[in-house]
């Protein structure tokens, strides 16, 4: 994949065109007669003059410089980079969906409303929560929505609580969402096992604390085995439990946060439910709540007019066909959190994914994700330090501190992996593990791929024993080597240079 691609402007050749139009057979009018003077360019636009094939090759080649799940293994911990089945894309591109307009009257949108309603029901089944909103546009947005619901609930009870407790292993978005909502964030350290420290939680959770934000399984890939007790401590103190469900891939079909006592849960459709992510594209972070928090959910809610007459699965009996409506009549609602109904395209994909797996298939997702992670963990444990746990859930965190002592950091190892054709694991997160590398294979990878990745990791560890510098100055095989990441973001240089370091 050693592509050298100039800017499209550098491919420009005067007079070259994509296609040539036939001579105009009506009277031509100069554009200066048609547009007001102020709207006209002072100078000709400097557009590249290229052929259609130039354009196709240019953009296809650029697209191939990007690392993606469709080409390579992508074990980016916490991100669940599973394969997005193509049938999801087919469904999302159906004209019946793509040609809808959000301002169309609900009578004309019954199909999509039914899909969204059914997706909410499926998420309720999978999570054990009482109700869902699909509006939030990402996991972090779900967190913010959850925090707003917590605040509305507390205010409704006449309580003002100022604090949210977040374990030190949490994803950075957790404290950020709580802070954005006006809460003071208190971090509590994890115990020696890498789990929530019950004693510290008890001591910290006062009458001024609104909620605990917990991730389960946590970001070390460990199940919070005391979750029932944790929820009880919080509830006894009059607080709520917010669960970051970004790691739901370990649990789907096996265990339900709703049954564990969680009050609010966000899911990432773009992680657990296979919709594509990365590159700044749209995500979806639905949140589920228990019954007592339902009145605070964002509006509109998608509802069936007459719940008693629920349609049979075929929808054949005319008198039983459901009518779906948008209900805005929730006076305690926090209001809208997204225009219209959120990122509907992602919801169509997640719905398609769930239907194509079926109940039986969904129940295998978590099992296989956990099996794959443990398989890799076992293969790597002799070669890298694994500070927490003896088994893991859907992901695990190794430490490159042994390698660091030899002169090769987690960053070096991550970069070297690119030369083997693998995306790097998440590095330097969670913060509580020195030289952390967080590996999440997902269930969609084969044993051959897992073996090849383990072989690469082991080879790198062996190389570092002998000659730690082999991982310096890597990657060598990618279009860009090691940019200064801050500078690259602030002062992007888009022109190709043969000097890889720039
Ligand atoms: C991905 C992730 C989030 C944030 O989700 P986004 O959709 O990226 O906003 C929050 N918590 C954890 C544990 C995550 O892995």
Name its key features.
502 residues; alpha/beta; Aspartate Aminotransferase, domain 2; Aspartate Aminotransferase, domain 1; 3 domains; seven-stranded mixed beta sheet; three-stranded antiparallel beta sheet; 15 helices; 34% helix; globular; binds pyridoxal-5'-phosphate
Write the layout of secondary structure elements.
Elements: H1 31-34, H2 52-64, H3 86-92, H4 95-98, H5 110-127, E1 131-133, H6 139-156, E2 163-167, H7 173-180, E3 184-188, H8 198-204, E4 209-215, H9 227-236, E5 240-244, H10 257-260, E6 264-266, E7 287-289, E8 301-304, E9 324-327, H11 344-380, E10 396-399, H12 401-406, H13 410-419, E11 426-427, E12 436-439, H14 447-466, H15 485-490
Parallel strand pairs: 2-3, 2-4, 4-5, 5-6
Antiparallel strand pairs: 1-7, 6-7, 8-9, 10-12, 11-12
Helix pairs in contact: 3-11, 5-11, 6-7, 11-14
The structure holds pyridoxal-5'-phosphate.
